[in-house]
Design goal:
about 15% strand, single chain, 7-stranded parallel beta sheet, Arginase, alpha/beta
């Protein structure tokens, strides 16, 4: 199988954070850094010292545990990329495999715009339609259980929504889950790390790049290195 890891499965949010990108983001350049600066400054308010920092985001946008266990895949061919819109090149290297995707979004269909155009929100659905993958499992993180707005909070609701967006033949090859075991390294043909910077806090880039280095991940499409950026 192939293992896809969207960093937003770990770099997440808490309940009732109304400027959280999980509510929706255009995923433009502004959303990948400047929008995070705005969030950090909003939380620092009028404070003079200490200076505003990415740490100001942490109470509302924590790094949830579990990402450390991904180091077990060191030695498996691994790649890192900016967005799931880049996943097609990875899939073409390993066609026909089943996919386990750790993600805060199912990425099976976009609710607006041209649904046939490859985007972060529909890459998995298009790959299923094209026969590029076998079955597809979206494994939402456990913290979605405490976040009613999240897709992974109510799996029956999310699957019913997909019934209006996907053909029955495609939907039959889709599994939605929350939490669960990770496959053994011997079961995984390749790993893809996806930064998704519009959805993930710059405060957590250090952990992402540390994981990428441990896995020896090659760049599929250059991710956005925000480690030296300041809010």
């Amino acid at each position: 199988m192939l293992l896809s890891v969207d960093w937003d499965a770990f770099s997440g949010t808490r309940e009732l954070v109304f400027d959280a990108p999980i509510w929706g983001t255009p995923d433009q350049d502004h959303d990948r850094l400047d929008a995070w600066r705005t969030r950090a400054r909003r939380r620092a308010g009028q404070r003079v010292t200490p200076a505003v920092s990415w740490a100001d985001l942490e109470p509302d946008f924590p790094l949830y545990p579990g990402w450390e266990t991904l180091t077990r895949y060191a030695g498996v061919p691994a790649f890192i990329t900016l967005s799931h819109a880049d996943a097609w090149g990875w899939l073409e290297q390993f066609p026909g495999h089943d996919i386990l995707n750790l993600d805060s979004h199912h990425d099976l269909s976009s609710f607006s715009g041209d649904r046939a155009r490859l985007r972060p929100g529909n890459w998995a659905g298009l790959a299923l339609e094209a026969g590029l993958v076998g079955s597809y499992t979206c494994q939402y993180p456990e913290w979605h259980a405490d976040l009613p707005v999240a897709e992974g909070h109510d799996l029956e609701r999310t699957r019913s929504e997909l019934g209006d967006l996907l053909s029955p033949a495609v939907l039959d090859r889709v599994t939605l889950a929350r939490g669960g075991r990770l496959p053994e390294p011997a079961e995984v043909r390749s790993v893809l790390l996806v930064q998704s910077p519009a959805w993930t806090s710059p405060a957590h880039d250090g952990a992402l790049w540390t994981l990428a280095a441990t896995l020896g991940a090659q760049a599929l499409c250059p991710a956005l290195d925000r480690r030296q950026s300041v809010p």
